Amino acid sequence: MRVRLGTIIWTLLVLGGASLVGQVVRVLSVDVTDSPPTDQTTSYHNTTTSLDATLGTEDNNLMWFMQISDLHLSVFHDPSRATEFRKFASITTATIRPAVVLASGDLTDAKKVDMLGSQQYIEEWATYSDVLRNSGVLNLTVWLDIRGNHDNFNVPSLNSPNNYYQKYSVQGQNHPRSYLHTHTRGSLSVSFIAVDACLLPGPRRPFNFIGMVAPAEMDLLQELKVEASRRSNNTIWFGHYPTSCILAPKPGVRQVVGGHDSLAYLCGHLHTLGGLVYNMYTRQHTGALELELADWKDERVFRVAAIDHGLFSFTDVQHNTWPVILVTNPKHALFTMQHREPLHLTSHSTHIRVLLWSLSAITKARVRLDNSPNWLPLTHIEGPLYVAKWTPNLYSTGLHTLEVYAEDRSGRVQTVTQPFSLDGSQPSFRFWPRALLMSNVSMFFQFLFGIMVCLCVVPLCFVRYIHRLVLEQRRVRPKMRMWLGDLWMRKMWVLASVDRLFWPLVISAAYMPIGPWFIGEVLEGHVGVVFAWGTFVNSSYLPGSLTYGYGFFQMLTFHWPLMLAIAHCADFRFHSLFVDREYSFPRYLCRHLCPLILVTIQMITAYFFWLAYGTMALVLGPLRTWSAFLGLFLWYQATTLPRSAFRETAVVWTEPNKWVGSDQVTATSEL
User: Structure pTM?
Assistant: First the structure.
């Protein structure tokens, strides 16, 4: 039995698609794949609480801290970022009085007034330093800051004069990169490990989005991890980049920050994906939580987290929202971590435990379970701790809800509702947060880039191969069932059969993953060469990451539509020469409008490249500038092709009696 080529192709596509779906499901699964050590199945390294301890009214073994991320303090844009940050440092922090504040990167904006160029501005760093030192926050708490990619724009080295982080940050003078801080309150010790994944050297934007942990930095993180286990009972990791945005040698940064003594990795960087995805939380395969925090820049959000007898809880709060409510027992069911927390303590607890803060005294505080009409009063114990007696046995199976109501003396009211369970029942993490935090962004971009390169090369080559078979009379010209499919097959056939169009398109697309994209000042005063697979600058090599995503969008928005536009133009020219057909003005306009739009957009992006990397990048820029000229060249060629360029095409797609011109017989004999 003869198997058709189309059947084979569709079978391969189905198998490949099924395999891809399987890989995606495996990556995004929140099932814990790392088994706990044998000595942790009945005990917990993460807590000093004994197995028979009771969660009641005591306030020992309780610590709370805060996180703020992506401040983007700017000398050009939105001065309210700084004024609100000053209120946060002087008022909010003084009200909550955390043991530690984590500032997880992008402390400054480092963008020029045009929002395209980038450099470090000492005024932005001076503002950051001034707020911290004049607000009094450094006298109230421990401020742990770390760099983000914006703090690393145009920074050639750690010792560079442009590295203002070392001078103006709180931790930069003593800890230029990753570091460890251990905080103790009573019998509870918590280690905070800062992960610096900034590129070294730090290029100017836009190719400074993905972080990287070099082998030496990975060794340091392993050492800090061991030291943290020796010093404390609980470990909190924090950094700017989500683990999905960090390149690292094996075993990978997720395995390091997700060790069995770790509770969570706290990060920022993604800015709610421009307001599309809020509450980016997940549980990694290691069993530890990864929690991305919305930015301060636009969202004005900060995080309050607590460790209560080894149970980790948190809430993300809009600034100037009071009272702030954080339930620590029973904790939110979505964020429970088996083998990392003493979850059995909740089943044996005597009291619901809630932390409340406000600018004025709390006057009303109550809690109810499963929407009961009967509210339980919350009694103030000490500091922010409020408790209410409960009977956990009544809620031993399934998911339940807990609602807290709080009101302060000024009449401000807040209500928080969250699920809890005592038997391990859990709701599901949402898909998009899991996709963004559990994937590998660099590999994802590589995959998309590879797909687009194939789409721009393989179809043309395949059609050209079929064209040769038809010319050699080894097969008949295929015909699509739908007229639209047949129409575009003819357009692509015309394009693939004309050498002066086919080869420039194929070579330019194949060049994208191989050749340099541009040569320019990747760092101010340092000429670099950028490829899809990496960047060479300042005697260093930076592996490709965001470059693949950039290449994908270049292929998607220029090369692929240019190929279709040139195919349409060439087909238009072919019919005007060989088929007796007149075209209306709208169709004539469409013939020229599409290439014109594509080339214009490409010229605009080339201008953006000039703003980002200078004149050299504009002139020596195959990615943007040369591609625009390629588009102009192909546009001109497709609209002015001579009759002789279509000789082979005419053999396949025309009949002699349909040809135009007095030289039909001559043309027939020639073809």
Answer: 0.88
